Amino acid sequence: MAAGAAPDRFDFVRASKDAALAAIIAAGLSFPILALRAEPDIDNRLTLQGRWSWLFIAALIVFVGRFLLAIFDIRPRRKPATDEALPASAYRAARLIGPAGLALLFVFPLAVFAALGPQGSLKWIDNYGIQILIYVMLGWGLNIVVGLAGLLDLGYVAFYAVGAYSYALLSTTFGLSFWICLPLAGILAAFWGILLGFPVLRLRGDYLAIVTMAFGEIIRIVLVNWSVVTNGDAGISGIPRASFFGLPFTAGPNGFAATFGLKFSPIHRVIFLYYLILCLALLTNFVTVRLRRLPIGRAWEALREDEIACRSLGLDTVKLKLAAFALGAMFGGFAGAFFAVRQGFVSPSSFTFIESATILAIVVLGGRGSQLGVALAAAVIIGGSEILRELDFLKQIFGEDFDPTQYRMLIVGIAMVMMMNWRPRGLVATRAPTIALGERHAIAGALVKEVHG
Amino acid sequence: MHRDPLLTIEHLTMRFGGLTAVDDVSFEVRRGDITALIGPNGAGKTTVFNCITGFYRPSAGRLVLSSGGFDANAIIALTNSGRRYSKHQGLFLLERMPDQEIAREARVARTFQNIRLFTGMTVLENLMVGEHNPLMRASGYSVFGLFGLPAYRRREAQALDHARAWLDRIGLTARADDPAGALPYGAQRRLEIARAMMSDPTLLCLDEPAAGLNPRESAELNELLRTILDEQGTSILLIEHDMSVVMQISDHVIVLDYGEKIADGRPDEIRNDARVIAAYLGVEDEGEVEEIEAALGAGQGR
């Protein structure tokens, strides 16, 4: 609706009707949650009790909120998509974010260690640093499939699982070291990527999404039920930890700390793991950035833009799709092997559908195809949902019974809805050309095709 | 002057369920010619195109591309051998080959009625994708390219020069780094042709290249097609409704109506063919026939 068409006078009747409707809908939706409460009685039978005041308060809040929205007219307005192209200067400035972020990532664990000591820094390096970097790597891996080739993959966690179980099984059964298992895990995951690729070559959009989702579930259910090999739901424990080029991170005389004359601390291993996943993620990024500028990368993007045109130009779409699946899966496999060596324990419960959804959300939120956007989105989603664990101050407002961590996912969800409203094409909505005669200009997201649908 | 046939279409038939879209059509596209395929809406022109470029598999018929010179015995031998093509003889049985293979091996390039550019990629990137296959080989299927070996970099620079030459020809050098989707319509048409030409095809198939162009752009297109023929030696097969384009530039015209070929000859022969005139008008009225004849004549005079 154009702003000029809005009446000068505030339309009270219309606003009240609108607010009343919103309140009725809210009451209807929240009725079973708010108004009904199941309480055990003396005989321990559940009885339903009404909490009508709660329902009334909720409806009232919605009514007032909706009414205020109408008064101040602050509904989100969609800007024309062409506004999204950044000016050239902003684009140049954006190029500095990468190197600056990289420097920050390398200094981060040492700075935190220096500031907070071995005990205080553990949480920051492990829960934030390593956790975020795993998802950055997974996001970058999936970005090859979803962002570049435009193939919607909802079962990416399957390759993460293949990588994790590859390392877990190879190391516990054959005693192979992490450095041998890492490439093997990648190769096995890539193999499964190709195996998934074959049946879905002819599928696009929604159908592709459904089949890949099923594939992810198949892998997980096989891991649950093939207990002879995978030990079922109990998972595989006692997975050997990574060593620093043969030096284990133990307190013994041959350990890492003793060799370098340091006082033993578990933080050494965590810092080592941090740099390990940082290097793996950077490898993913390096390969993706290089491939994007090669014929294969341009062909992937062309495939996302128009598959029929690709075929008319003689591009082998079958091989291109399989290559995208295999490469994306390989990096998922690397990340999986890292996950196993970090946890020392894997079980199918780590590889549920929600993981695939999270990784896809990272790619979509970051801006399909944008390496920087995906990294930022991983930091926002994973880091944000970790930070929400620290909402203890809310207890002072809502009382001691209030458990803020329970609202974590609700807040993450609301934040994502708002983000997608604000930037429907993700944080970095523009596309950088892979080759240019003159200066490279970013391409507005509106022109770039999205996932096949 | 008799030129040898580059593409020989024999008894091409295409059925969709009970509907016969193309019925026993035979014609030749001669080397070095611009051949036009015309006909009223729904005559089966695009279906013929899709059969030639492998987007449809014909129900019956043989489509031979003889880029290495026409040799009837070799064609029979290849047909009986059961193979799809013989690269060293330059013989390709298009009805047996899938679309990507026709583009890659037989080097038949095409454009589309509704323009199919990679809209989110720049003009230059579109052209570079056109030369994908040689570049892919030069990059060692991405392995050499990943390590930035000089052999690949040289090949890429060569492709870039090739792209520059085409940008110059279609007048889009200044817009090389703009997204293809942001170009005006006429420029998009030219870019699609240039992208198809980046693969150095032996036969270029254009599906209504002049659709939606204004008279000036139409004239530029004629010039571009002539350049392609004279400088690149690429033969051209085009579907067109714009009679000014058809009559002015084509050496040979084939007319389809209701899936059947009703005429085949030089533009001046076609112009006076009673069946063609009837097919276009759908009536036998003398007055209207004269009208269309006048229009066709005017088209040629321009």
Gross morphology of chain B is globular
CATH 2nd-level architecture of the largest domain in chain A: Orthogonal Bundle
Which strand order does the major sheet of chain A show?
1-2
Main sheet overview of chain B: 6 strands, mixed
Order of helices and strands of chain A: HEEHHHHHHEHHHHHEHHHH
Rg calculated over all Cα atoms of chain A: 25 Å
Q: What is the CATH fold-level name of the largest domain in chain B? A: Rossmann fold
Secondary-structure class of chain A: mainly alpha
Q: CATH superfamily assignment of the largest domain in chain B? A: P-loop containing nucleotide triphosphate hydrolases
Content-based structural category of chain B = alpha/beta
Element pattern of chain B in H and E: EEEHEHEEHEHHHHHEHEHEEHHH
Number of helices of chain B: 13
Q: Strand order, main sheet of chain B: write it out.
A: 7-8-9-3-10-11
Helix content of chain B: 40-55%
Whole-number mean pLDDT of chain B: 84
Question: Strand-residue fraction of chain A?
Answer: under 5%
The greatest interface here is:
A-B, 37 and 48 residues
Helix/strand layout:
The complex is a heterodimer of chains A (453) and B (302).
Chain A: H1 12-35, E1 36-40, E2 46-50, H2 52-72, H3 88-148, H4 157-174, H5 178-200, H6 205-225, H7 227-230, E3 236-237, H8 256-259, H9 267-292, H10 295-305, H11 307-312, H12 317-343, E4 345-346, H13 353-366, H14 371-387, H15 394-398, H16 408-422
Antiparallel strand pairs in A: 1-2, 3-4
Helix pairs in contact in A: 1-2, 3-9, 3-12, 3-13, 3-14, 4-5, 4-6, 4-12, 5-12, 9-10, 9-12, 10-12, 13-14
Chain B: E1 5-16, E2 19-30, E3 34-38, H1 45-52, E4 60-66, H2 72-81, E5 85-86, E6 91-93, H3 99-106, E7 108-110, H4 123-130, H5 132-138, H6 143-146, H7 150-170, H8 185-197, E8 203-207, H9 215-232, E9 235-239, H10 243-249, E10 252-257, E11 260-265, H11 267-271, H12 274-281, H13 286-301
Parallel strand pairs in B: 3-9, 3-10, 7-8, 8-9
Antiparallel strand pairs in B: 1-2, 1-4, 4-6, 5-6, 10-11
Helix pairs in contact in B: 4-8, 10-13
